[in-house]
Design a protein that fits this description.
This protein is mainly alpha-helical. About 75% of the residues lie in helices and about 0% in strands. α1 (about 1-25) packs antiparallel against α2. The longest helix has about 35 residues, at about 30-60. The chain starts with a helix and ends with a helix.
């Protein structure tokens, strides 16, 4: 789930920054400032998720007695290997 948070946060950051630059080009500075603040919030969210993954990997690499959760979405999205196996087993 942490990777989803990173990618969603970065996507929203760039969408809001694009909108901000668009509003500056039109001449609406007040709206552009609010969009820049919102994009900064999403960038901060993405960076927090990145640090969370970093600490999770550091704890796992030094064999720390506990691990912090990063979220498992394998039950939502099947891997390419499993899809290929299903395709071999049940050809269309």
């Amino acid at each position: 789930m942490a990777f989803v948070t990173i990618f969603f946060g970065l996507f929203m950051t760039f969408v809001l920054l694009t909108g901000s630059y668009w509003e500056i080009a039109i001449g609406y500075g007040a709206i552009a400032a609010k969009l820049q603040i919102a994009s900064g919030a999403f960038a901060f969210l993405a960076s927090l998720a990145g640090w969370w993954i970093f600490f999770a990997q550091m704890l796992a690499s030094v064999d720390f007695p506990f691990q912090i959760p990063v979220g498992d979405i394998s039950h939502l999205i099947r891997s390419g290997t499993k899809r290929a196996q299903d395709k071999e087993r049940f050809p269309a």
